[in-house]
Specification:
Belongs to the SCO1/2 family. It comes from Cognatiyoonia koreensis. By secondary structure, the protein is α+β, with helices and mostly antiparallel strands. The protein has 2 domains: about 1-45; about 50-200, Glutaredoxin (3-Layer(aba) Sandwich). The chain is built from 5 helices and 9 strands, in the order H-E-E-E-H-E-H-E-H-E-E-E-E-H. Strand 4 (about 105-110), helix 3 (about 120-125) and strand 5 form a beta-alpha-beta unit. The longest helix has about 40 residues, at about 5-45.
């Protein structure tokens, strides 16, 4: 099929226009991405939630400030992820301090199942992990915290008494100013996780 010079000119102009749009889109993403990351860093964990801690204190967004902090969500009936994460935190603390009792950072376990996880239940659950404090509250306050930290949590349909929960499994690291520093993924190797925490401690 033969095209006239005018048609070919229009095709070339259209192609260049598409290239220009693609380049503009890439530039916009590059411009916007760091701003989105900064927005997430500055706002994650912010909210009007008020949780009850197993050490007798009250936990709010202000509690994130003051020192390096690890936050993770779970529930005491969790079959695998939560006990594994508690064990990971105990390992990280030991790798950083060389002690089974000393701690290098604060750690908070926020329940996504407040109906079953009372302060007493949580206290017993986290007591063996160095430096880990359990947090619970009313369903309303827990939902506020879930929203503030932008995590996923959902009750799996099942028996009314013996149900399961799906939830985000990452550990969120916050700096002394209460800003998100970096997440540690579930199952991430000890060396990588400890390296992240070391960067947090020296930041």
């Amino acid at each position: 099929m033969d095209f006239s010079d005018e048609t070919m000119k229009k095709i070339r102009l259209g192609a260049w226009a598409l290239v220009a749009l693609a380049l503009l889109g890439m530039a916009w993403v590059q411009f916007l991405s760091p701003r989105l990351e900064q927005s997430i860093t500055d706002t994650l964990g912010r909210g009007d939630y008020e949780l009850v801690a197993t050490d007798g204190t009250v936990f709010t967004e202000e509690s994130l400030k003051g020192g390096p902090t690890a936050i993770f969500f779970g529930f005491t009936h969790c079959p695998e992820v939560c006990p594994t994460t508690l064990g990971d935190i105990a390992t990280w603390q030991y790798e950083l301090t060389g002690s089974d009792t000393e701690t290098a950072f604060r750690a908070y376990f926020i329940t996504v199942d407040p109906e079953r996880d009372t302060v007493e239940v949580l206290d017993d659950y986290v007591s063996w992990a160095p430096g880990v404090v359990g947090l619970t509250g009313s369903r309303e306050e827990i939902d506020k915290a879930i929203k503030a930290f932008a995590i996923y949590a959902r009750r799996v349909p099942g028996n009314e008494e013996n149900y399961n929960m799906d939830h985000t499994a990452s550990v969120l690291l916050f700096d002394a100013d209460g800003k998100l520093f970096e997440p540690i993924g579930y199952g991430e190797g000890v060396d990588r996780a400890v390296a992240k925490i070391q960067r947090l401690l020296t930041s």
